[in-house]
């Protein structure tokens, strides 16, 4: 589990520094029809067991989800078209409530395959396979490539001409950018405070 957390931290750091959004933005996949939240919703509807989805919402939101679930189950029995509409309504409600609990806005369900970040797919695959090795390898490769390219750019920008202030100023800027890049990766990989805080919030609700 520690390795999986470190791998996730690496992808958060890399994605953020590479211009991707953090969870709740472009890289999130809890709002896609093939994401884990909707997958759990499908399981709940087919089995009649709401416990498939309750872990995705806080205790404070259980009542709303239970009421929606019971209403949707009744509507589903009215026919194929009603079933399709009811299922969609349940998916949207569940995703909206889940994202609100994460402090993220709900902007509608996204189609399957909407998430382009390969680390997200690899993270899901890790759980399916019971191994994070492929994910770790992917992230390690990205970190090596990112650090290597940033370092090369920063090194090339350095100037030994002490009187060429502008050139040396550009070199300093490139150096600072490089240090910030690796600092962000290291801090994300070694800091677990945010994860522990998130777990406490879930438990309190």
C-alpha termini separation: 24 Å
Low-pLDDT runs: 1-27, 197-205
Q: Judging from the principal axes of the Cα atoms, what is the shape? A: elongated
DSSP strand (E) fraction? under 5%
Number of domains: 2
Q: Measured on Cα atoms, how large is the radius of gyration?
A: 22 Å
Number of strands: 0
Query: How are helices and strands ordered from N to C?
Result: HHHHHHHH
Helix count from the secondary structure assignment? 8
Please identify the structural class as seen in this structure. mainly alpha
Helicity level, as a percent range?
55-70%
Mean pLDDT: 82
Report the biggest beta sheet as strand number plus sense, adding barrel if it closes: none
Defining key terms:
single chain; 205 residues; mainly alpha; 2 domains; 8 helices; 68% helix; elongated; disordered N terminus; disordered C terminus
Structure summarized in a few sentences:
This protein is elongated. The longest helix is centred in the last third of the chain and has 26 residues, at 165-190. Helix content is 68%, strand content 0%.
Question: How would you describe what is shown here?
Answer:
The chain contains 8 helices and no strands. The protein has 205 residues and is mainly α. It folds into 2 domains: 28-101; 118-204, no CATH class. The model is unreliable at 1-27 and 197-205 (pLDDT under 50).
